[in-house]
Each structure stands twice: as C-alpha cells, then as structure tokens.
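Forwarding the complex inputs:
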Amino acid sequence: MTQQATQEPLYVGLAGMGTVGGGLIQLLQEDKDLIYRRTGRRIVLRKVLVRNVTPERAAQLPEGCELTTDMAALTDDPQIDVVVELMGGTGAAHALISRALEHGKHIVTANKALLAEDSEALFDLARTNNCLLRYEGSVAGAIPIVGTLTDPLAGNHIVSLMGILNGTSNYILSEMTTNGMDFDGALRQAQELGYAEADPTLDVDGFDAAHKLTLLIRLAFGLDYPFASMPVQGIRGMDKRDIAMAREFGYRIKLIAEARLHNEADGTTRLEAGVFPALVHHSFLMARVGGVYNAIRLDGAPSGPIFLHGRGAGALPTASVVLSDLLAIARGDKPNNTGFANRIVRAAIVPPEEWRSRYYVRVMVHDESGVLRDLAGCMAAENISMAQVIQKENEKNVVPLVFMTHETTAQAMTRALQKVHETGILQTAPVYYRII
Amino acid sequence: MTQQATQEPLYVGLAGMGTVGGGLIQLLQEDKDLIYRRTGRRIVLRKVLVRNVTPERAAQLPEGCELTTDMAALTDDPQIDVVVELMGGTGAAHALISRALEHGKHIVTANKALLAEDSEALFDLARTNNCLLRYEGSVAGAIPIVGTLTDPLAGNHIVSLMGILNGTSNYILSEMTTNGMDFDGALRQAQELGYAEADPTLDVDGFDAAHKLTLLIRLAFGLDYPFASMPVQGIRGMDKRDIAMAREFGYRIKLIAEARLHNEADGTTRLEAGVFPALVHHSFLMARVGGVYNAIRLDGAPSGPIFLHGRGAGALPTASVVLSDLLAIARGDKPNNTGFANRIVRAAIVPPEEWRSRYYVRVMVHDESGVLRDLAGCMAAENISMAQVIQKENEKNVVPLVFMTHETTAQAMTRALQKVHETGILQTAPVYYRII
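Prediction (whole assembly, two chains):
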C-alpha cells in the first residue's frame, strides 16, 4: 500500500458551519486514523465559507484552515479538490455547487431541498465534468440508503418503497400514541427537546419527507417525479382520538412516504407516490419505528423486502455519512451519482384520485337511529364496503362513528363522503386516512 | 453518455451452475435493459465451468456461451474480464480464484466458507493485481451489508454488531416458538421445504453463521478473527421447553452472531465474538425476525444503531446481488475489496470465559425443599445474583427450575454450575443461554 500511503491529501472546502458543518469539522479532526485506515490518505480542510467571520468560529478550525465570506474563494481555488455544501437553502447553494462543478470540484452535500427541487442541471454538470456529486447525508441521516440503492441493490428491480422519513413527525406521533398527548403539546415538547424547529412547517406538513421521497424515487426507479406535483399531507392538527381509535383496531398512525410502480395493461409503467398519514398494522416492523427514528422498506424483485432502520437526523450521525462520501472521493471512486448511466427520465404519474387503499374514516354524528344506515348507503352507492365499525357511547349527543373500509379509490371515497355531507348528518368534517 | 454507451461489453466467465449460478444466468438474460440502464454497457456471458457437460445445461445458456470442464479455459482466457465463482467448497474455488487473479481477472463470489477460512492470500493477490474481489452475496443474501460497511458507513466507528445470519436455524426456532414443534420435527419440515440441506451441520451447528460473522468482523472493524478460533454453539437438540420458558419471561430464543470491541484500560482494544443461541427480549426488532429472514444490527459512533432486515438466502435474491457486483465492475469502480486501504490485522481476542452476560438457566431437580437454597448458594459463591426464578409444579418428581441471573462472566457461570453439579441435586445436565 506504499503507493496509496504516499498519495497527496484530499483538500476540502466547506460551505456552512451550522450543526452538521461543525460536526464534520469535529470528525475530520478526531478521525484522522480512521480516514487514513480507510483510504490511505489524509483529508485536509483548507477553507470554510461562512456568512460572518467570528473569532469563535475561527477557534474551531484546524491549523492552516481559514474562514472566508467569499464564495469564489472556495469554488475557484485550484488547491481544493472537493466542496462540501452544508449551508442549506436552495438559491445560494445551487450557485455554489454549479460554480464548483464548473471548476471541476467534486461535491458532497446533504441538501435534500436543493436536490429534490432543482438538481437536474447540477447532475448534468457533474456528468459533463466527470465529477462526483455525493449526498448520502441527504436522506434519512445515518441510514445508508443512497449507497444501498446505487450499489448493492442496483441489480434488483425495486417495485415499491415506503418510509418513515421525518423524525420530528414520528416523534410527535409516538408521543401522542404512547403518552396520550395532543398534537400541540407533543409539538411543543419536540421543540423544547430540539427535535423540531421554531417553524415546524417543513417537518409536520410533510415537505421534508417529500423532499427525501423525491430523491429515493430517482435512486430506486431512475425516474423523476417533479417535487411540485407530489401529493403531500402532513400531521398538523392530528386528533389524538384517531390515534386512540386506530390502536383499538390494532394499528399505529405514521407519516408515510410511499412510491409504487404500476405495470399497466398496455405495457407502460406509471408511478404512484406521495406523503400522507396512514394506519400501519402493529405487527409490521414499520409500526415499531419509535421516536426520532427513521425506517425504509424496499420491495425488490428478486430480492424481496428489505427493511432499514436507524437515526434519521442529528449533527454527528449526518456528518459521519458526509465523511463517508469524502472517503469515497479520497479512494478515487468513479462517479455513480444517480445509480444510472444516463439521465433519469420523467415519471408517468398515477394521479392521487386513482390510488387504491383501504381507509379508516371517522365522522362525528348525532347519536340517532338511521345515521349508520344513511352512512352505509352513501358508501354502498360508491361500491365501498365497510369492514369494521365502532360506535362509541358518549355523554354528549354528538358521537364519533369510526369505520374501516375494504379497498377502494381515493376518488370513490371523496365522492362517498360528499354524499354523506349532503345527508346533513355530519357535525364536523370527516377525518380519513389510508390503511397500510 | 455516448462515451459509455459505446463501451465494450463486460465479458464474464462463470464457475458453477447450481441454484445461484443458474439464477445468475437467468438474470443476465432477463435483465439486459436494467444492466444497460445501470452501466451503459452490456454484460456478456462467454463460458461456464461445470463438472459435467450435459445437453440440459447447454440448453440454458445464452447464444455464443459455451460450457467447459477445464478451469484454465476460464481463468486464462484473455477475452474474459471477470470470473464469477459460484461453485462453492474451498479447495477448487481457491485455486480457481487465485489463478484468475494472477491473470488479472476481477472476481465476484458468494463463497462465505472460502472467504472466512482461507482468503488472506486472495485479497493480497487482488490488491497486487489491482483487481476487484467482490462478495456482496456471501453474507445475508440480499441484505446489502458488504456494500454498506465498505462505503456509506465507512466514516463511522462500528463498535459492535449482532445478527441473525442463518435462515435455516431461524426458521427452525420460529417454528418451535410459534407452533410448539420440537427440534427434530422443525428440522424435518425445513428439509422438506428445501430450507435445510440433507446434512444440516453447517446451518444448525452454527458454522454458516460463523463464516458470515468472520466476514462481517473484517468489514466492520478491519480485524481478522481466525475462523478456527471462533466460539460456535448451534441450536441442535434445542429443547422446546426452554423456548416456552423464555417466552414466559418475555424473550425469544434466536441463534445470534455477535462481535463487540472492548476498549481496555491500557488503551488497547480486544474483540469479543462468537455464535450462540441467546434470549432476545420480545420488544427488540431482532426478536421479530421470523422464518428464513436474516437481520443485522450495527452499533456505530456517531451513527447510533442501524438495523437491516431481509431475505438471507435464496437462489435469485443471492444472484441479484452477484449481478450488482458485476454492475460495479462494469461501471469501472476502483477496488475497495475490504473497505480498508491496507491489509487488515489480527484481532486481539477476548476469550469466551471472560464474556459478561445475563444468563437464562434451566436445571432439572427433585421437587424437594432445600434445592433452591442449595442452588442459590452455589450461585452466590460465584457472586452471581438471581433476578427471576420460576419453579413449575409437575406431576413427576423431577421438575424444571428456571432462573435468570444478573450480569456475570461465562467463567463464573461455569464454576457455579459445576458446584451445583457437585451438590448432587441435578437430575440432568443444566441448560443455559445468554440473554441479550
């Protein structure tokens, strides 16, 4: 290994010094032995791009590394081999990565929003310039899903995938399930513990999970599902009654990201994908994903189902897979940025109204005779058959009536609930979730 | 991608046409589109080495591919880029791979016995000749564990790993647990279903799991644990009473392969590793691995725990990851055969008598007063404290007395049970398993 041991160090420029960036700086200093054992080279941090240069930040840097506020000082520096983008956001990050690729730098990023919303040009640039564009940290933290899909499972046909991809939402749902908290209380607790941002929109409204799902769809199927078209429903305002009712039926409510290939009769394929809360039977491994953990299930042919579970976020876990991406570049891996040789193609999309599923439905009705008959009649008119019904007694006049249906389409369910609405028996809007 | 699209095909020679070899031939014919999408190249099977050339075998081959019984026709053919070894066994496979590497061929194999018992020279040869030696199919079938450890988790320090690595044993234990079968009946059923060989030694006596554990230890820690020194205990003759008793305590009995790094006070590290039946608490994901499935849990710093679950065997699932290895070679990946830049080093070993664990113990005793006192006295003499005791009433005079201990060493447990033996209260040899 003399040959490798005498190799030049790999020179790195880092953009962004937030929690993950700070974690990477720490790992690069602590893990010199690991890096050398894994690659036979050293990794040297030359420059860090920040918005403001402060003495506190400068103190965290290794010797010989300097802070800069000038993007070009990173992207154009001939002595930098790799630019690590951990600044987040989309505009400036896109400009930085483009310019770095134009200068022939390899890229490591964990920026799921950028990659999901606007990365086609970046992947093209990386291909043209024969650069690596690696992003293991952008999906599900330390769960090794990007590398798994681009390499050991590349010989499989992935036919569907399903995941719990947002740790914040899963924490909130777990607390609501285990401790009977309501949504607002569980969100506040997540914020106090640092699991949720002050503005929790990206997490609880499902957009973070949808960003990650967009990346997984490309990696698994080689298809592009435009992020703007992705159906996304989050968990904001989830009623703890539904979580309790689901439990009585033997289910947990989880925020699920799902994508599924449909082979149509005419030989074409269409993709069904989206993010939504759903009931998952307690006997499934997916139902047992607790707290801030993430999990992904891949269904491949001929591999069968593969399930991966781990921490979905956190500064050091994410920094550690960013480091793994740097190790791959230090080893001299060839670009395999998307897992496919050519540009991925636009997916033909199954519109959400065609999705088939069993449903959990809760309606609030007056506790009167005839209500169940009217409800069942509206369902039957759309060929929806009810599998199980629970009607709870209540001291009040308005009671929840909960039922689970056999499989139907989203369209039929919407129409049936519209008919129920027209009967005038509903006291509040109906709540309904898919069952997995 | 014109550049890649006009690349030469990758030419492959295959040794062995058993179930996995036959599966690979099938996938290479069915998956031409997948292969081209993933690599921009074609993969062409040129020759297949078999012991006997038969018309039935010849009929399974693609056009232009020929059968041969001459090893050198594969290893020395300048028109073959990669030799895929799926013949099994150690002697002939070792000779074949050595000779192919000497001729500069890349290697793909799923031969865990060969890699575990005698592969140091092969990895050295691959390094010297700058060849890829890939073996994703050798551990846990379609679970992508080799690639996970060499790439996306390379930036982590794996501190321990644990797995259910033998599907046959797990099937037998699952049947004994779920259906109350005894060991012989469950083994016979596994044989009838094709999950167990006529000679089940490798599976039920733990050697297959130990082969895989040996490979995982190298990949996770960069350490060599000589296979011949590995402590291995299988499940042959497991008593269904112990499975039922374990359930009463809230545990499942699983055949566990485990490896754990110990950081010693003097700054050195030692490795504790082995294969053994153990009690796993039902709330752990590992306890929920059923039937012929496999699972692996990796504990890394800073990644935290990562859990992977999937089919551990099967002709097509294994062939599909063999195909993934071929895709990596077709992409022109650089050798990263062990995940480390230099030769891996010999592990310092924690001898089994020093292992610390909680224990499940079952002894058969006469149903007399004083027996529990004598037993507890022997345990106390070795500083072993008993956490829970179950004594069952029985119509016979000899009854099972089952207890779980707090943590102790294997050595203390052996000595305590020797003392119990000397009291004369034991009617049969004691049964004891570790608790995880």
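Chain A touches chain B through 65 residues (CB under 8 Å).
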